[in-house]
Amino acid sequence: MESQNTYQKFKRLEPWLHLFLWVMVLFYPYLKYSEREGGYMMSFAHELNSLFFKMTISYFLYFYIFPKKDKKTYILVAILALVVNTALYELADGYFHVDHTYFLQHFMANLLTYLSFAVVFFTLYSVKNMYRQQMQLDALAQGKKQAEMNALKAQINPHFLFNTLNTIYANALKKDDNTPTLILKLSDGFRYLFHEGQQDYVSVEQEVQHLVDYIQLQQERLADKVVVHFSTEIDSAEKQIAPLLLIPFVENAFKYTSVLKGKKHPINITVALSDGHFLFSCVNPFDSNAKEAIDPNWSESGIGIVNVKERLHLLYDESHDLRIAEQDQNFYVNLSLEL
After folding, report:
1. How confident is the model over 314-323, as a mean pLDDT?
2. Which of 97, 118, 212, 335 has the smallest number of Cβ neighbours within 10 A?
3. What is the pLDDT of residues 71-86, one digit of tens each?
4. pTM of the predicted model, to two decimals?
5. For the chain, what percent of residues have pLDDT higher than 70?
């Protein structure tokens, strides 16, 4: 992607920009007074001392203060750092100026100098952050596109589609009253992928309904194999959430449970939303030795956990917590989001 290449180029160029800046700062006084008789009067040690304090405050702000998302709460910390750094410099600079008597004037002049460096480094940080954000937006768009393609593949791969159609056909032969409902669920699943699945955000109600449709189709198809316990507790169904975040975990639950021996294996799925705090939990029995029995067409389909993790990182960077674990022959997925 073009934005990623630009960001990577900027990162490679950045150390040289820093080096150029500090070399210019260090040697500028000597260049400025080079044509005067006697040249620049201050020692090189004096300039190194001055450079040290300029670099200290600049990189403290650059690496610690500027990356903070809530910069306003760190304004006092930044001001205190500037004042302390200036005071320490004045003390250190006293070794080079024995007759130094204008402490306050020098203090204010150097404080303004450090503020100037703060502006320079904030500009540098802003440019770098702009390139990084554009790269993340492009990656998000690419990841969303891949998610849509993979989700569509998961829904139309022969393993799922043919078995579902066979189930519907068998029900139709028996004149089962559920047949129209199953056809509608399958249709709704495709509509969701083609329409809502391509939106940036959908309502929690829509995302949960997509899960319900998928679960009901799988329950009908694997009636003797699984028993699904699905519960929801949502206080605001219109809250917005990124689409296709939950279906991979549910798909995996059915995928790995379907190959187990025996019948009536429990799959427990819970969705809750309270005061903007979204919780999703999925627990299913798991046997790592049985993975080889999964149909390759089904095993390779689907959005995939890796893709979901990438989208969560881009969309809900510091407002999500995803925990996946295998324990006591069960597979646990717990996801929390701040919507």
Report:
1. 87
2. 97
3. 788 889 999 999 999 9
4. 0.54
5. 83
* DSSP codes, 39-84: ---S-HHHHHHHHHHHHHHHHHIIIIITT-S-GGGGHHHHHHHHHH
Residue 134: exposed, middle, or buried by beta-carbon count in 10 A (0-12, 13-18, 19+)?
middle
CATH of 157-338, one of 1.20.1330.10, 3.40.50.620, 3.30.160.270, 3.30.565.10: 3.30.565.10
Identify the DSSP state of 201: -
| H helix count then E strand count, the chain | 10, 7
Q: What is the DSSP string of 218-274?
A: HHHHTTTTEEEEEEEEES-TT-EE-TTSSHHHHHHHHHHHTTSSSS-EEEEEEEEEE
Distance CA 328, CA 334 (A): 16
Token pair of 272, please? 């809750």
The CA-based dihedral angle spanning residues 238, 239, 244, 248, taken in that order and rounded to the nearest 10 degrees:
-110
Residues 256-279 have pLDDT tens digits of 888 888 889 999 999 999 999 999
136-145, 239-248, 281-290: the lowest-pLDDT one: 136-145
pLDDT in tens, 108-144: 988 999 999 999 999 999 888 888 878 777 776 666 6
Per-residue tokens: 1: 């992607």
Domain ranges of the chain: 2-134, 157-338
